[in-house]
Design goal:
Layout: H1 5-52, H2 57-73, H3 79-109, H4 115-137, H5 146-163, H6 173-176
Helix pairs in contact: 1-2, 1-3, 1-4, 1-5, 3-4
Amino acid sequence: RMREQKFWSLYAKVVYNERYFFYYRERALKLDRCIKFFLCAASLSSVASLAFWNQVPLIWAVVSAAAQLLSAMAYLIPYSDHINALNNLLPELSKLIDQIDYLWDQIGISEEITDAEINALVLCLNMELTDLENRYTKGIPFSPSKKCIEKAIRDREDFIKNRFPPDEPKHSEEELSHV
């Protein structure tokens, strides 16, 4: 129905955002681990390389220079910041999805909820989403990730199919009040 369109769009947007940030965190974790592993390996190899310095000076010089450069620039690469922010944001987005899911069911059940009330709910929930993202990301730049976008879109579509199968029977308010 037309009156539910705005609410449905919000629902789909929040599910997408949660999935996008989930995959972004996974990506940041992998990249952060790779950087730390490389720095650790370079540091350990510096001790071991003293014995091999005369045999492979070019390899040692390249590894040493790369490690020094990466170590100096590590504070500019915000993967750790991304991970920390998203570890806090994701549970909050999950709660928001549960809240929206509950309200979606209420809108579907009750004919007494007006268009104005639905618009007010959408506004409040949009503001809550923005507040959560601002509170936990605190201006940390998140560069777009095509793979994260594709996975989030796929997961959102799967969520919708699983949450709202095409042959789902309609439930009465009385049936749902016992749940």
